[in-house]
Amino acid sequence: MARRRQIYEGKAKILYEGPEPGTLIQYFKDDATAFNAQKKGTISGKGVLNNRISEHIFTLLGGIGIPTHFLRRLNMREQLIRQVEIVPIEVVVRNVVAGSLSKRIGVEEGQQLPRTIIEYYYKDDALGDPMVSDEHILCFGWASQEELHDMADMAIRVNDYLSGLFAGIGIRLVDFKLEFGRIWENEFSRVILADEISPDGCRLWDMASGEKLDKDRFRRDLGGEVEAYQEVARRLGLLPEDGDTPVLDLDSHRKLRGK
């Protein structure tokens, strides 16, 4: 059997050449990083959970007209996705003061923002992914005005939808990051949602207790990372309620339950 050609390896995922032109296979790793990869570790089964959670969310977003790179899940750790030209900008949507925003403005975590904030970060590990303005983005040609408008518009739509989705299962969507990619159609391109949406890139707090159900448990040495990710999957209906299913048996357990 021929070995698949690796296209790219990031902190949490590996991209392989897809079976058809214009496609890639996205593999979710268990590796965990924080603080621009200064802290590294492993969360056993994280890749399986993030694959399922991201598949679920991207499918729902596609249903409301958000264009994404997601095509279908292949197995427990892999998805088939469209090949895109990644826009080198991370779009961060904030609903509640937390993380770096709390440190920058000296406001205690947990304060509800009077309006949603959208921030842009230039994707460059060597520079620590610095925050940039739309003027920087346009000046250096990282994205066009039309692309920037489309990304901001999609970010707000995603936020509105996910805020309601998570609120319905008792989770507060504090903030999250999005990445976008260009797809080309003849001489024209458009931006679509790419990467993943999972507890790796979202801050998710239990509405009743304030318990963190995301990667902050790893960043802050709180422990219980796997249980937190499982809890998110469980509330989304992707895991059984009995809590006894091993992380690595998700697919077989879903078949047994007829899902």
Automatic annotation (TrEMBL):
Specify the superkingdom.
Answer: Bacteria
Q: Name one GO molecular function term.
A: ATP binding
**What catalytic activity does the UniProt entry give for this protein?**
5-amino-1-(5-phospho-D-ribosyl)imidazole-4-carboxylate + L-aspartate + ATP = (2S)-2-[5-amino-1-(5-phospho-beta-D-ribosyl)imidazole-4-carboxamido]succinate + ADP + phosphate + 2 H(+)
Q: Which UniProt keywords apply?
A: ATP-binding, Ligase, Nucleotide-binding, Purine biosynthesis
What cellular-component terms does GO give this entry? Answer: cytosol
> Family assignment?
Belongs to the SAICAR synthetase family.
| Record-linked NCBIfam families | purC
PANTHER family, from UniProt?
A: MULTIFUNCTIONAL PROTEIN ADE2, SI:DKEY-6E2.2
What this protein is called in its record is Phosphoribosylaminoimidazole-succinocarboxamide synthase
Give the gene symbol.
Answer: purC
